[in-house]
Amino acid sequence: IGPAGDARECQQLAELLLDHGVDALVLETQTFDQALACLGLLANQAMVPLLVSLHRWPRRIGDAARSLVDHGADALGVNCGTDLAAAWSELERLQAVTSSPLLFKPAIGPADSLDSFRQIVTACRSTPTRWLGVCCGGSERELTAASHAGWGPGP
To answer: Mapping DSSP to helix (H, G, I), strand (E, B) and coil, where does residue 71 land?
Structure first.
């Protein structure tokens, strides 16, 4: 669920998805305030995991991470951004302040190479990252590279 006009719109979309049997809800490309408002309406009614991925984390990332978990987030993450390096920097900041499972879906910038993506996939193995994908600028090319680098469904 991308950024909605307001929390009620997020709730309506979540209800539609839940009615169709989704296994989890991902709030992505949200600001902290948008995600917190949406979690406030979903946490007690969604019987599926709630994954929250911000495109830009607040300066006080530890406080923000704790607040989102306290309000029902089951996993935290980073998505979009301007390029791989910027998104990876945000993920490192997040990893330093939480023990929650992580989600990482970086944007692939024009200057980003497939080799740099492979390096990040390899680096993700030493983090609590459990979900990996791509956002803006990404394609099946990066997902295939992730699979060849050993990323995929695990136990």
So the answer is: coil
